[in-house]
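User: Hey, my collaborator sent me this sequence without any context and asked if I could get a structure. I don't really work with proteins. Can you help?
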Amino acid sequence: MRKKITVVGAGNVGANVALRIADKELADVVLVDVVEGVPQGKGLDVQQSGPVQGYDVTLTGANDYEATANSDIAIITAGFPRKPGMSRDDLLLANYEVIRTATEQVAKHSPNCIIIVVTNPLDAMTQAALWVSGFNKNRVVGMAGVLDSARFRTFLAMELKVSVENITAVVMGGHGDTMVPLPRLTNVSGIPITELLDQATIDRIVERTRNGGAEIVKHLKTSAYYAPSAAAVEMAESILKDKKKVLPCAAYLEGEYGINGLYVGVPVKLGARGIEQIYEIKLTDDEHAMLKKSAAAVQELVDVLKQKR
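Assistant: No problem. I've predicted the 3D structure and written it out in structure-token form, which is a compact way to encode the shape of the chain:
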């Protein structure tokens, strides 16, 4: 039986998610979007790349959710993108309606699937998807830390002039300006970056990581999509293949790190059951304070959403 992934939203992120899934031959894809013709056209375009690229998957474009039935994973990318000067928080209420509608349909047609949320503001939107779906917390996960740590690794590799493949980075907290990159736990083939870079350089790279999305918005006048799509597909692959990769993701915490009832970015094990384990790292007092501050920023958004439920 071939695997099946629903991708909600056929914009820049969703289309690239579909393309990356096809390139890896992970699953057949149903690309859903409210705009007539867009998912159908992009789905055909990606499928017609198969003979050249050497992949053999089926891509279906649709404006409703009938074709998505019995998907193994649903990746929700639909929503309004950031524009210059907008924070992720500005998107909150508009994208809540998008997430609510999409999650209702996904849960109705694929009640056993695992949901990966990409829509911003990420942590709050993932919390909304949990509420609306009624799924167990392990089956609703947010894509944040994989992207944020990829940005951290990229900037470190650029600075150190080493292969990005040799860098292991840890980024926790909410997906936004209060995220918590952890230099103490970041290394190059086991060598701590604190032994390779001075504190001023590390601080500069941490700050650039926190503003990584905004930097791209400044150039493109819209949100990033190549790296976010790559991050979402890495998560989907770990789930579909039961790889049990340890990745930083937005997970629902119930007491871990002293945080309760909230989605926050932490290291998790991703396997066939979704989030199979949450890793609780021993943090320094300063790191824990930054994580608490980040969680408080997420809580503010969630409190606003609670009034809309």
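In plain terms: The chain is about 40% helix and 20% strand. You can pass these tokens on to your collaborator as they are.
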